[in-house]
Amino acid sequence: MSQQTSERNEAASHDSAAADANDKVTSLFGARQEPETGPVDEALELFNQMSRQITDSYRTLEERVNDLAGRLSSEERRRRDELEEREKVANRLSTLLDVLPAGVVVLDSQGVISQCNPAAVELLEEPLEGQRWVDVIQRAFAPRRDDGHEVSLNDGRRVNIEIRSMDNEPGQLILLTDLTETRELQSRLARSERLSSMGRMVASLAHQIRTPLSAAMLYAGHLYEEDLDAEMRERCAGKLMARLQHLEQQVRDMLIFARGDIRLAEQLGVGEWVQAVVQNAETSLQTRRATLTTPDHWPEGAIACNREALIGACLNLINNSLEAGADELALEVSGQGGEVRFCITDNGPGLSPEEAERVTEAFVTTKSHGTGLGLAVVNAVVQAHKGRFELVSDGHSGTSAIITLPLAAPHNG
């Protein structure tokens, strides 16, 4: 026990001695101070701060570059896909132009052919590209009087021409469509329809021709009678002539309707036209005891026509009025705007609007007899003369049949 106490006292004495020694050292050298911050340390701190900023900026720039690179790559892919799609469309258009049955010609701003397809080459023949369009026209086209809306080529084919301007660049696009086969098919179809109609017409004409023919034979038989007096002989001769004229009219109508086309190779003065119609109508008017009032004057000039067909059409109108029961007819002839208007007005029963519209169709008639070809032939003849035909009636009394034809220069024989 006393030994432990002695050890504690010795340790305390040792600690006390150490503390005294430390106090003495401190008193000699002074208390310990913290190191002072110098210029080098400040520079190092500034360098570290700038390094961090540069690192952050680089990281931001790197992210921005990666973003732009991604966008650029996406835009390149989009442009590449768009270019590929345009190439596909261009290839499809090129293929389409090659197989297109219509000719396509592209002109630049100077009227020079910059592009064409095989169909255009087949129609117009080479060379085409690099040639002026006006030169190609003079070389390949040969217009004819009956072209209408088409234009004839040197080889006889007919083409339709459509011209369009280029939307986004100077120049023109020309489309050439070969209508030769179409026109031939239409002509064949019209001829077939006429032949079909003729089949129906023959059945009707068999009766229509037989009746006046029988009457003509009867009147001709009377003329052989020796004891027939002069007055009766003259009457029979007149009736015979009327029946024969009727037969001739029937045959002429049939031929005009069957042919369909009428050659306009003559020029007829308006005055000659009127006088010829009046003279040829005298027999029919006398037979029906009807009168025809004629004009005192008419316009100057002439018409390009088929004389026989045109006068026959006008006589058809007069006979149609007489057969409808009219006994008073009036002829008016006037001119205006380069046209001549030929109008026959009667005092017959008139036509309803529906009848006036339909009677110009073949085999349509308002009478209990007849072929229904008369007014259809008139309409065909007038159209062949580049004119217009119309019927005007109030539906109760009287009808006006109007033929309007273009005037031409008088024929100087």
TrEMBL record:
Pfam family, one: HisKA
Organism (species): Vreelandella halophila
Domain Histidine kinase: 204-409
Protein name: histidine kinase
Enzyme Commission number(s) from the entry: 2.7.13.3
Top EC class of this enzyme: transferase
Any one GO molecular-function label of the UniProt entry: phosphorelay sensor kinase activity
InterPro entries: HATPase_C_sf, HATPase_dom, His_kinase_dom, HisK_dim/P_dom, HisK_dim/P_sf, PAS, PAS-like_dom_sf, Sig_transdc_His_kin-like_C
Reactions this protein catalyses: ATP + protein L-histidine = ADP + protein N-phospho-L-histidine
Protein's UniProt keywords contain Cell cycle: no
Region called Disordered, residue ranges: 1-41
Signal peptide range: none
Residues forming coiled coils: 58-92
UniProt keyword annotations, A-Z: Coiled coil, Phosphoprotein
